[in-house]
Amino acid sequence: KAVEKQVKTKKVEKTTEKKAEPINEFAGSPISMSDDERYWLEKLVEAESAGESYEGKVAVASVIANRVEMKEFPNTVMGVIRAPKQFSPFMDGSIERRIPSEYSLRAVAQVFDEVNRKLPDDIGFFCTTEIAPHSWIGKNKPLYKVIGNHSFFLK
């Protein structure tokens, strides 16, 4: 119940980034979700991509959308974002303190509602570029692209 109340009174953090222009490189399917799922998804995109460009935020949201559609992952937004050992903001509790910027909100809407994704549908992992060479992902998955401070990998 407390989460539902927060959804209705959600604050949006102002940022000085440039205007968020839609990035339409790959199409997907619309993914429906509850207000509660959207609330936590927007917070997660902010937590994972704070300080990144709008393109970086769309890429992070794209990986989450791709995972919802991959058979290797849960088929719901909440199932994907709360999966064990997947997203550090959930593991360390820092997600609780995040307030999504207007650009994180827009990135989620672009990817999940307008189905305009930054990455192809077989991109299922990302991590910071700094840890990529030493991480399990970096050692076991093919690198697709680097965007800002994140490296994106094939499933």
Could you please describe the fold and organization of this structure?
The strands form two sheets. A three-stranded antiparallel β-sheet has the order 3-5-4, with helices on one face. The chain has a two-stranded antiparallel ribbon with strand order 1-2. The protein is 41% helix and 13% strand. Residues 1-23 have low confidence and may be disordered. It has seven helices and five strands, in the order αβαααααββαββ. The protein is of the alpha+beta class and 155 residues long.
Task: Tell me the layout of helices and strands.
Layout: H1 2-8, E1 26-27, H2 35-49, H3 54-69, H4 77-81, H5 88-91, H6 102-113, E2 116-117, E3 123-128, H7 136-140, E4 143-147, E5 150-154
Antiparallel strand pairs: 1-2, 3-5, 4-5
The first-to-last residue Cα distance is 36 Å
Arithmetic mean pLDDT: 86
By secondary-structure content and strand pairing, the structural class works out as: alpha+beta
Shape: globular
Q: What is the count of β-strands?
A: 5
Low-confidence stretches: 1-23
**Secondary-structure element order, N to C:** HEHHHHHEEHEE
Going across the major beta sheet, what is the strand order?
3-5-4
What is Rg? 14 Å
Q: What is the tally of helical segments? A: 7
